Amino acid sequence: MAKESHRSIKREKYINFRRAGNDPRDAARFAGYSQPESDAYKLEKHPEVIKAIKEVQEETRKMALFTREDSIRHLLNAIKIAEVKEDAAGIVRAVQELDKIHGFHAPQKKELSLVDGTGQQHRKKLERVPDEELLSKIGGEKGLVVDGEFEEAAEAQK
Q: Which long-range contacts (CB under 8 A, 24 or more apart) does 52-58 make?
């Protein structure tokens, strides 16, 4: 009886660690099982564990009732209402949120290589090119602040 009670306590600990988002092996290790990998494999087949995991999955599914698509739909409705009320600030705020959802504010990466196929560096040549021309090559415009990183590659061996 005491041995079964000890198993139940460990299994309940395992279930709690799984509910907290731990993977099976970590949950078994945190719950005190001596062979986390094989014990987790067995525990995942236990009816109590299966039931607890299904409950967590159902709770998670219910929490995700408001989706990205719902956000977009509501923002589009907000824009329509703001247009009717002639509320330019409301339109701007909704558009800003839509831009964030679509990732339009994510940094863009542009690479400019100073090395051609033969390994010849063109650094000196590029240093003589006016800033406006370099900006046009990366799709920028005059007055644009370009934030970047400089990484010097090792010289190619001859």
A: 52/15, 52/18, 52/19, 53/18, 56/18, 56/19
